[in-house]
Protein backbone atom coordinates (compact mmCIF):
# COMPACT_ATOMS: atom_id res chain seq x y z
CA UNK A 1 0.00 0.00 0.00
CA UNK A 2 1.51 3.32 -1.08
CA UNK A 3 1.44 6.00 1.64
CA UNK A 4 2.78 8.95 -0.32
CA UNK A 5 5.90 10.42 -1.90
CA UNK A 6 9.20 11.65 -0.47
CA UNK A 7 9.79 14.33 0.77
CA UNK A 8 6.10 14.94 1.55
CA UNK A 9 6.38 11.85 3.75
CA UNK A 10 9.61 11.58 5.71
CA UNK A 11 11.10 8.11 6.24
CA UNK A 12 10.30 8.29 9.96
CA UNK A 13 6.70 9.34 9.41
CA UNK A 14 6.19 6.63 6.79
CA UNK A 15 7.57 3.93 9.10
CA UNK A 16 5.30 5.14 11.93
CA UNK A 17 2.19 5.12 9.68
CA UNK A 18 3.10 1.69 8.27
CA UNK A 19 3.39 0.29 11.80
CA UNK A 20 -0.06 1.73 12.70
CA UNK A 21 -1.70 0.22 9.63
CA UNK A 22 -0.01 -3.14 10.31
CA UNK A 23 -1.32 -3.18 13.88
CA UNK A 24 -4.86 -2.42 12.63
CA UNK A 25 -4.72 -5.26 10.14
CA UNK A 26 -3.32 -7.81 12.62
CA UNK A 27 -5.14 -6.81 15.81
CA UNK A 28 -8.48 -5.50 14.49
CA UNK A 29 -8.83 -7.39 11.23
CA UNK A 30 -9.05 -4.14 9.22
CA UNK A 31 -7.61 -4.16 5.72
CA UNK A 32 -6.74 -0.50 4.99
CA UNK A 33 -6.17 -1.24 1.29
CA UNK A 34 -9.58 -2.86 0.93
CA UNK A 35 -11.14 0.00 2.92
CA UNK A 36 -9.53 2.55 0.59
CA UNK A 37 -10.73 0.68 -2.51
CA UNK A 38 -14.27 0.45 -1.10
CA UNK A 39 -14.29 4.19 -0.47
CA UNK A 40 -12.99 4.86 -3.97
CA UNK A 41 -15.71 2.68 -5.55
CA UNK A 42 -18.55 4.08 -3.40
CA UNK A 43 -21.42 5.73 -5.28
CA UNK A 44 -21.41 9.49 -5.73
CA UNK A 45 -24.49 11.69 -5.43
CA UNK A 46 -24.36 12.18 -9.21
CA UNK A 47 -24.71 8.41 -9.61
CA UNK A 48 -27.58 8.39 -7.12
CA UNK A 49 -29.26 11.18 -9.11
CA UNK A 50 -28.89 9.25 -12.36
CA UNK A 51 -30.37 6.10 -10.86
CA UNK A 52 -33.20 8.00 -9.18
CA UNK A 53 -34.18 9.67 -12.46
CA UNK A 54 -33.97 6.44 -14.45
CA UNK A 55 -35.75 4.14 -12.00
CA UNK A 56 -38.07 6.44 -10.05
CA UNK A 57 -38.63 9.94 -11.45
CA UNK A 58 -39.30 8.63 -14.94
CA UNK A 59 -42.41 6.83 -13.61
CA UNK A 60 -43.76 9.83 -11.69
CA UNK A 61 -46.31 12.30 -12.99
CA UNK A 62 -44.13 15.10 -11.59
CA UNK A 63 -40.83 13.54 -12.62
CA UNK A 64 -39.81 16.59 -14.66
CA UNK A 65 -40.09 18.73 -11.51
CA UNK A 66 -37.77 16.35 -9.66
CA UNK A 67 -35.27 16.56 -12.49
CA UNK A 68 -35.38 20.35 -12.33
CA UNK A 69 -34.64 20.37 -8.56
CA UNK A 70 -31.82 17.88 -9.05
CA UNK A 71 -30.29 19.97 -11.84
CA UNK A 72 -30.62 23.30 -10.01
CA UNK A 73 -29.80 22.38 -6.42
CA UNK A 74 -28.72 18.79 -5.72
CA UNK A 75 -26.01 18.24 -8.31
CA UNK A 76 -24.29 21.64 -7.81
CA UNK A 77 -24.19 21.14 -4.03
CA UNK A 78 -23.38 17.43 -3.69
CA UNK A 79 -22.86 15.91 -7.13
CA UNK A 80 -19.21 14.84 -6.89
CA UNK A 81 -19.38 13.82 -3.23
CA UNK A 82 -19.94 10.29 -1.98
CA UNK A 83 -23.51 9.39 -1.03
CA UNK A 84 -22.28 8.03 2.31
CA UNK A 85 -20.41 11.25 3.09
CA UNK A 86 -23.45 13.56 3.09
CA UNK A 87 -24.52 14.47 6.62
CA UNK A 88 -27.46 16.16 8.31
CA UNK A 89 -25.55 19.45 8.48
CA UNK A 90 -24.95 19.36 4.72
CA UNK A 91 -28.63 18.97 3.93
CA UNK A 92 -29.62 21.59 6.50
CA UNK A 93 -27.10 24.02 4.99
CA UNK A 94 -28.52 23.45 1.50
CA UNK A 95 -32.06 23.96 2.80
CA UNK A 96 -31.13 27.35 4.24
CA UNK A 97 -29.26 28.34 1.07
CA UNK A 98 -32.18 27.48 -1.22
CA UNK A 99 -34.57 29.26 1.16
CA UNK A 100 -32.55 32.45 0.81
CA UNK A 101 -31.98 32.24 -2.93
CA UNK A 102 -35.15 30.60 -4.26
CA UNK A 103 -37.74 30.86 -1.49
CA UNK A 104 -39.17 28.66 1.27
CA UNK A 105 -41.36 26.52 -0.98
CA UNK A 106 -38.53 25.45 -3.28
CA UNK A 107 -36.31 24.74 -0.27
CA UNK A 108 -38.93 22.42 1.23
CA UNK A 109 -39.39 20.64 -2.11
CA UNK A 110 -35.62 20.14 -2.37
CA UNK A 111 -35.40 18.56 1.10
CA UNK A 112 -38.42 16.34 0.44
CA UNK A 113 -36.78 15.11 -2.75
CA UNK A 114 -33.45 14.49 -1.00
CA UNK A 115 -35.25 12.55 1.72
CA UNK A 116 -36.81 10.27 -0.90
CA UNK A 117 -33.50 9.87 -2.73
CA UNK A 118 -31.63 8.90 0.44
CA UNK A 119 -34.41 6.47 1.41
CA UNK A 120 -33.84 4.75 -1.92
CA UNK A 121 -30.07 4.94 -1.35
CA UNK A 122 -30.57 2.87 1.81
CA UNK A 123 -32.57 0.31 -0.17
CA UNK A 124 -29.88 0.26 -2.86
CA UNK A 125 -27.10 -0.32 -0.31
CA UNK A 126 -25.38 3.06 -0.77
CA UNK A 127 -25.65 4.12 2.89
CA UNK A 128 -27.38 3.10 6.12
CA UNK A 129 -29.30 6.20 7.19
CA UNK A 130 -31.20 9.20 5.84
CA UNK A 131 -29.48 12.56 6.53
CA UNK A 132 -32.51 14.52 5.26
CA UNK A 133 -34.76 13.28 8.05
CA UNK A 134 -35.49 15.75 10.81
CA UNK A 135 -34.69 18.89 8.80
CA UNK A 136 -36.96 21.66 10.07
CA UNK A 137 -39.05 22.75 7.09
CA UNK A 138 -40.10 26.30 6.31
CA UNK A 139 -43.64 27.31 7.25
CA UNK A 140 -45.76 27.34 4.11
CA UNK A 141 -48.74 29.61 3.76
CA UNK A 142 -51.28 27.99 1.46
CA UNK A 143 -52.23 30.29 -1.39
CA UNK A 144 -55.28 29.88 -3.56
CA UNK A 145 -55.41 32.23 -6.51
CA UNK A 146 -58.63 32.49 -8.49
CA UNK A 147 -59.24 34.42 -11.68
CA UNK A 148 -62.10 36.90 -11.45
CA UNK A 149 -64.46 37.71 -14.31
CA UNK A 150 -62.28 40.44 -15.82
CA UNK A 151 -59.14 38.32 -15.63
CA UNK A 152 -60.93 35.38 -17.24
CA UNK A 153 -62.11 37.61 -20.05
CA UNK A 154 -58.60 38.87 -20.72
CA UNK A 155 -57.19 35.34 -20.65
CA UNK A 156 -59.83 34.05 -23.09
CA UNK A 157 -59.03 36.95 -25.44
CA UNK A 158 -55.30 36.18 -25.20
CA UNK A 159 -55.95 32.50 -25.93
CA UNK A 160 -57.64 33.41 -29.19
CA UNK A 161 -54.59 35.41 -30.32
CA UNK A 162 -51.86 33.04 -29.08
CA UNK A 163 -49.36 31.83 -31.68
CA UNK A 164 -49.71 28.16 -30.66
CA UNK A 165 -53.35 27.13 -30.69
CA UNK A 166 -52.35 23.65 -29.52
CA UNK A 167 -50.99 25.18 -26.29
CA UNK A 168 -54.03 27.50 -26.13
CA UNK A 169 -56.34 24.48 -26.37
CA UNK A 170 -54.49 22.81 -23.51
CA UNK A 171 -55.14 25.87 -21.35
CA UNK A 172 -58.79 25.95 -22.49
CA UNK A 173 -59.20 22.31 -21.47
CA UNK A 174 -57.67 23.07 -18.06
CA UNK A 175 -60.21 25.86 -17.60
CA UNK A 176 -63.17 23.78 -18.80
CA UNK A 177 -62.44 20.63 -16.78
CA UNK A 178 -60.49 21.69 -13.69
CA UNK A 179 -58.09 18.83 -14.45
CA UNK A 180 -54.52 18.78 -13.26
CA UNK A 181 -51.86 19.89 -15.72
CA UNK A 182 -50.31 16.41 -15.95
CA UNK A 183 -53.69 14.83 -16.67
CA UNK A 184 -54.29 17.19 -19.60
CA UNK A 185 -50.74 17.09 -20.97
CA UNK A 186 -50.59 13.28 -21.08
CA UNK A 187 -54.22 12.74 -22.16
CA UNK A 188 -54.81 10.38 -25.10
CA UNK A 189 -57.84 10.21 -27.40
CA UNK A 190 -58.74 6.70 -26.23
CA UNK A 191 -59.51 8.13 -22.76
CA UNK A 192 -62.46 10.08 -24.20
CA UNK A 193 -65.92 8.98 -25.22
CA UNK A 194 -66.80 12.07 -27.23
CA UNK A 195 -70.32 10.89 -28.02
CA UNK A 196 -71.23 10.31 -24.37
CA UNK A 197 -69.09 13.23 -23.16
CA UNK A 198 -67.03 11.19 -20.68
CA UNK A 199 -63.34 11.46 -19.82
CA UNK A 200 -61.93 8.36 -18.11
CA UNK A 201 -58.58 9.23 -16.58
CA UNK A 202 -56.47 6.08 -15.96
CA UNK A 203 -55.06 5.50 -12.50
CA UNK A 204 -51.51 5.88 -13.84
CA UNK A 205 -52.26 9.50 -14.83
CA UNK A 206 -54.05 10.71 -11.67
CA UNK A 207 -52.52 12.00 -8.45
CA UNK A 208 -54.76 9.72 -6.37
CA UNK A 209 -53.67 6.62 -8.37
CA UNK A 210 -57.35 5.80 -8.99
CA UNK A 211 -59.31 5.77 -12.21
CA UNK A 212 -61.38 8.94 -12.42
CA UNK A 213 -64.43 9.02 -14.67
CA UNK A 214 -65.75 12.55 -15.16
CA UNK A 215 -68.46 14.08 -17.39
CA UNK A 216 -67.48 16.78 -19.87
CA UNK A 217 -69.34 20.05 -20.22
CA UNK A 218 -70.90 20.86 -23.60
CA UNK A 219 -68.16 23.45 -24.15
CA UNK A 220 -65.37 20.96 -23.36
CA UNK A 221 -67.00 18.35 -25.57
CA UNK A 222 -67.25 20.81 -28.47
CA UNK A 223 -63.60 21.85 -28.03
CA UNK A 224 -62.45 18.23 -28.14
CA UNK A 225 -64.55 17.43 -31.21
CA UNK A 226 -63.01 20.37 -33.06
CA UNK A 227 -59.50 19.36 -31.94
CA UNK A 228 -60.04 15.75 -33.09
CA UNK A 229 -61.33 16.85 -36.49
CA UNK A 230 -58.33 19.16 -36.96
CA UNK A 231 -55.84 16.47 -35.84
CA UNK A 232 -57.36 13.93 -38.26
CA UNK A 233 -57.34 16.45 -41.11
CA UNK A 234 -53.66 17.30 -40.61
CA UNK A 235 -52.65 13.65 -40.33
CA UNK A 236 -54.48 12.85 -43.58
CA UNK A 237 -52.79 15.76 -45.39
CA UNK A 238 -49.37 14.58 -44.20
CA UNK A 239 -50.09 10.93 -45.00
CA UNK A 240 -49.57 9.61 -41.48
CA UNK A 241 -51.56 8.19 -38.61
CA UNK A 242 -52.92 10.70 -36.08
CA UNK A 243 -50.98 11.01 -32.83
CA UNK A 244 -52.59 9.18 -29.90
CA UNK A 245 -52.04 12.30 -27.76
CA UNK A 246 -54.34 15.32 -27.57
CA UNK A 247 -51.26 17.52 -27.32
CA UNK A 248 -48.40 15.76 -29.09
CA UNK A 249 -44.81 16.91 -29.09
CA UNK A 250 -42.94 17.70 -32.27
CA UNK A 251 -42.46 14.09 -33.41
CA UNK A 252 -46.00 13.05 -32.41
CA UNK A 253 -44.81 9.95 -30.53
CA UNK A 254 -44.70 11.64 -27.14
CA UNK A 255 -46.92 14.11 -25.34
CA UNK A 256 -46.12 17.82 -25.20
CA UNK A 257 -43.83 18.13 -22.19
CA UNK A 258 -44.32 21.69 -21.02
CA UNK A 259 -46.57 24.75 -21.28
CA UNK A 260 -44.28 27.08 -19.38
CA UNK A 261 -43.25 29.29 -22.32
CA UNK A 262 -46.80 29.62 -23.63
CA UNK A 263 -48.19 30.29 -20.16
CA UNK A 264 -45.70 33.11 -19.54
CA UNK A 265 -46.67 34.67 -22.88
CA UNK A 266 -50.40 34.30 -22.15
CA UNK A 267 -50.09 35.87 -18.70
CA UNK A 268 -48.19 38.79 -20.19
CA UNK A 269 -50.81 39.28 -22.94
CA UNK A 270 -53.70 38.99 -20.46
CA UNK A 271 -51.97 41.16 -17.81
CA UNK A 272 -52.17 38.43 -15.19
CA UNK A 273 -49.81 38.58 -12.22
CA UNK A 274 -48.92 35.76 -9.85
CA UNK A 275 -51.06 33.18 -11.65
CA UNK A 276 -49.89 29.59 -12.08
CA UNK A 277 -51.39 26.99 -14.40
CA UNK A 278 -52.62 25.13 -11.31
CA UNK A 279 -54.66 28.21 -10.38
CA UNK A 280 -56.94 27.41 -13.32
CA UNK A 281 -58.03 24.35 -11.33
CA UNK A 282 -58.78 26.60 -8.35
CA UNK A 283 -60.70 28.93 -10.67
CA UNK A 284 -62.81 26.05 -11.99
CA UNK A 285 -63.66 25.02 -8.42
CA UNK A 286 -64.42 28.58 -7.34
CA UNK A 287 -66.90 29.07 -10.20
CA UNK A 288 -68.69 25.84 -9.26
CA UNK A 289 -68.92 26.68 -5.56
CA UNK A 290 -69.91 30.30 -6.16
CA UNK A 291 -72.69 29.06 -8.45
CA UNK A 292 -74.15 27.13 -5.52
CA UNK A 293 -72.91 23.61 -6.24
CA UNK A 294 -72.16 21.49 -3.19
CA UNK A 295 -68.65 20.62 -2.06
CA UNK A 296 -69.22 16.86 -2.64
CA UNK A 297 -70.10 17.59 -6.27
CA UNK A 298 -67.06 19.82 -6.67
CA UNK A 299 -64.85 17.16 -5.06
CA UNK A 300 -66.21 14.47 -7.38
CA UNK A 301 -65.50 16.59 -10.47
CA UNK A 302 -61.98 17.40 -9.29
CA UNK A 303 -61.22 13.80 -8.34
CA UNK A 304 -60.67 14.45 -4.63
CA UNK A 305 -60.74 11.32 -2.46
CA UNK A 306 -61.46 13.08 0.85
CA UNK A 307 -63.82 15.95 1.78
CA UNK A 308 -60.95 17.67 3.59
CA UNK A 309 -59.24 18.44 0.27
CA UNK A 310 -62.36 20.09 -1.13
CA UNK A 311 -63.07 22.00 2.09
CA UNK A 312 -60.49 24.62 1.09
CA UNK A 313 -63.22 26.05 -1.17
CA UNK A 314 -65.93 26.15 1.51
CA UNK A 315 -65.59 29.90 2.09
CA UNK A 316 -66.64 30.51 -1.52
CA UNK A 317 -70.05 29.03 -0.78
CA UNK A 318 -70.84 32.08 1.33
CA UNK A 319 -71.88 34.10 -1.74
CA UNK A 320 -74.98 32.04 -2.67
CA UNK A 321 -75.75 31.55 1.03
CA UNK A 322 -75.64 35.33 1.51
CA UNK A 323 -78.08 35.79 -1.38
CA UNK A 324 -80.42 33.22 0.15
CA UNK A 325 -80.37 34.73 3.63
CA UNK A 326 -80.86 38.23 2.15
CA UNK A 327 -84.14 37.02 0.65
CA UNK A 328 -85.30 35.82 4.06
CA UNK A 329 -84.25 39.11 5.62
CA UNK A 330 -86.17 41.09 3.01
CA UNK A 331 -89.33 39.08 3.70
CA UNK A 332 -89.04 39.43 7.47
CA UNK A 333 -88.53 43.18 7.27
CA UNK A 334 -91.53 43.64 4.99
CA UNK A 335 -89.78 44.22 1.70
CA UNK A 336 -91.51 42.65 -1.29
CA UNK A 337 -89.53 39.91 -3.03
CA UNK A 338 -90.76 37.09 -5.31
CA UNK A 339 -91.91 34.07 -3.29
CA UNK A 340 -92.16 30.57 -4.74
CA UNK A 341 -95.66 29.08 -4.63
CA UNK A 342 -96.40 25.53 -3.64
CA UNK A 343 -96.61 24.58 -7.26
CA UNK A 344 -93.11 25.94 -7.84
CA UNK A 345 -94.16 29.09 -9.75
CA UNK A 346 -93.41 32.51 -8.34
CA UNK A 347 -96.32 34.35 -6.68
Give the overall average pLDDT.
83
Radius of gyration: 29 Å
Strand order of the largest sheet: 1-2-3
Percent range for helical residues? 55-70%
Task: Outline the low-pLDDT stretches.
Answer: 339-347
Order of helices and strands: HHHHHHHHHEEEHHHHHH
- Based on Cα principal axes, name the global outline: elongated
Strand residue percentage: under 5%
The oligomerization state is: single chain
Major pleated sheet:
3 strands, antiparallel
Topology:
Layout: H1 11-28, H2 32-41, H3 45-55, H4 63-78, H5 88-102, H6 104-123, H7 149-161, H8 165-177, H9 181-185, E1 192-193, E2 198-201, E3 212-215, H10 218-237, H11 260-270, H12 279-290, H13 295-302, H14 307-310, H15 318-332
Antiparallel strand pairs: 1-2, 2-3
Helix pairs in contact: 3-4, 4-6, 5-6, 7-8, 7-11, 8-10, 8-12
Structure in words:
The chain has 347 residues and is mostly helical. The protein folds into two domains: 25-141, DNA polymerase, domain 1 (Orthogonal Bundle), CATH 1.10.150.130; 149-318, Intergrase catalytic core (hpI Integrase, Chain A, Orthogonal Bundle), CATH 1.10.443. Helices cover 55% and strands 3% of the residues. The chain contains 15 helices and three strands. The longest helix is centred in the first third of the chain and has 20 residues, at 104-123.
What characteristics describe this protein?
mainly alpha; elongated; 15 helices; 3-stranded antiparallel sheet; DNA polymerase, domain 1; 347 residues; 55% helix; 3 strands; disordered C terminus; hpI Integrase, Chain A
Amino acid sequence: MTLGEYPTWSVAAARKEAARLRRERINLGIDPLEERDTERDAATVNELCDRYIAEHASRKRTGHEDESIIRRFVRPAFGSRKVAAIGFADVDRLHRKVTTESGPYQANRAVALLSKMFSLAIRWGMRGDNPARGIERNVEERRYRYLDGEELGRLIEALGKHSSQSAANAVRLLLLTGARRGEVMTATWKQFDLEAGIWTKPSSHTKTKREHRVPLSDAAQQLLLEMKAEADRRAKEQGRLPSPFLFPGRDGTKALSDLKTSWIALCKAARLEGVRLHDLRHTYASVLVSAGHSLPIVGALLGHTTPVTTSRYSHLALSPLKEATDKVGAIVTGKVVPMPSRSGAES
